[in-house]
Amino acid sequence: MSKNAEVSELCTYNIELLKQMSGVIDLLQQQASETFNYAQAVGPHLRHVIEHYSALLNTVQQEGRCIDYDARERNLAIQNVPVVTLAKIQNLIDQFEALAAEPELQPDQPLQTRLRSGLAGEREFIVSTTLARELLFLASHAVHHFALVGHYCNDAVVELGHDFGKAPSTIAFERGEY
């Protein structure tokens, strides 16, 4: 596999996850009871994931290329209004499709990420990373939050499927591939 094909494949995986997210919103709008509070249950998780994706996509095209996942917009409209969430997801999909088509991008493209640490965010680190590493992180991060979203959906009696919110390695293990 060429290096650019690797970036394209990682972008495609993240696009698939974003499409899953859109599907969850559609199901909730169709099937959840009127008492289900989207803005309190799943909205915060989806906004959080979306804003992490935005942080990377906004950084990849910048000169300094330092991702700051902590400096998220925290846009409550994304959290509270499903139609706004869906529009933002589509925007991210479009950006990932464009990123996947850029022939000069390499999986080992150097980036940096700024992270706050300590129990109260009192420390700050800037660490070296790569485009591929961050694309994998975002996918894993999304799946982790999907697991939490899945519990809320189960409580709302909205079925998302047996494998929703499971890590790919867990699914492979359950199929006997490990």
Automatic annotation (TrEMBL):
Superkingdom of source: Bacteria
PANTHER family per UniProt: DINB-LIKE DOMAIN-CONTAINING PROTEIN, PTHR39473
UniProt-recorded name of the protein: DinB family protein
Organism, scientific name: Jezberella montanilacus
